Amino acid sequence: MFLLPIGIVFGACYLISRRRDPRLLRNGPFLVAAITFGIIGILAILAEYNIVASILLWIIALAIPLSILVFGIGLIANGVTMLRREGRSLGHQLSLIVGVLVLVLPIVAVVLVMQFGLPGFWIAALIGLASAYASVAFVSFAVYSIVYGRMRHTFAPSAIVIHGSGLIRGRVTALLRGRLDRGLRVYGSELARGNRPVLVPSGGQGDDEPRPEGEAMAEYIKEQGVPEADIVPETRSTSTRENIAYSVELLDAADRCGPIMLVTSDYHVLRTASLARRMNVDAQVVGSRTARYYVPSAFIREFVALLVENRVVTLIAVGTFAVLMVAILVGTLTAALG
């Protein structure tokens, strides 16, 4: 009975927080918690009067362990595909590593309990808590990345900054072309609204690149018929933070004040938005689509990077999550014993 009010509280927190700033990372956990507690709370109430609701609750309970198995196998299969298509770098092996951990950790927990008794139980409980937090945090990140990426931003940007992603033999890659085409679509829609933003292709020169990314990106944009006066290349940046910072410097020098639109890949949207917020840059972010096989590893990489960048927030969230999980566990045990 108490689950539905919790869901309503989280829903209210989500709406308030999103209205304050859609780039806030806490919007994701608020949204997922509101949906989860809300649905289970409604079904729990209806189960007292309706057999269908009771069956749905059992299906959800049974689906959790099954989803772990399916998720682990799916990640391993994706990891094999990544190795075959993208090579053996650590970033490309993330889905494979996480898939193995998803399947192995429950077995490790069971072995610990069986072999070491109470000490093993507490170690297994810590593994379970850490795994539960990581799972909830990742789902929140992935869900809100999709939600944020599909938001309609109605402001009129003074500039559209397109983030680089590397060149091959001095030419734009398929991934980078997707970002450029997404930026061009935003540019076209702004022209149709009577707004004329400048396009800022942003990217420096890597050690293995014959020229700066911003230069090659600017060439591509000009080939699509955009006037040179509407293109302001940024050619120094080597990271997302520098993409934003150096582009803002260029825009300030060109007396282009006002909010900006950042364009990156869909998996990179939420992390970029969070970074822009921390840098006090008035910007929102849109994303271009990525090849499906590339998405799982890309999302995992972004999630890990986000946890590292927000260490303090992560520790606070872990503490809050632990308290909530313990409260739910105590309440369940109390009800069962009573």
Short overview:
This protein is 67% helix and 8% strand. With 338 residues, it is an alpha/beta fold. Helix 8 links the parallel strand 5 and strand 6.
Task: Give descriptors for this structure.
alpha/beta, Rossmann fold, two-stranded antiparallel sheet, 10 helices
Strand order of the largest sheet: 4-1-5-6
| Helix-and-strand structural type | alpha/beta
| Residues in helix, % | 55-70%
Overall mean pLDDT stands at 85
Structure annotation, total helices? 10
Count of domains: 2
The N- and C-terminal alpha carbons lie at a distance of 16 Å
**Biggest sheet: strands, sense, closure?**
4 strands, parallel
The sequence of SSEs as H and E is HHHHEEEHEHHEHEHH
| Principal-axes shape call | globular
What is the CA-based Rg, rounded? 23 Å
- Residue runs with pLDDT of under 50 for 5 or more positions: none
How many individual β-strands? Answer: 6
Strand content bin: 5-15%
Structure description:
This protein is of the alpha/beta class and 338 residues long. It has 2 domains: 187 residues, no CATH class; 100 residues, 3-Layer(aba) Sandwich (Rossmann fold), CATH 3.40.50.620. Helices cover 67% and strands 8% of the residues. The strands form 2 sheets. A 4-stranded parallel sheet has the order 4-1-5-6. A two-stranded antiparallel ribbon has the order 2-3. Helix 2 packs across helix 4. The model has no long low-confidence stretch (mean pLDDT 85).
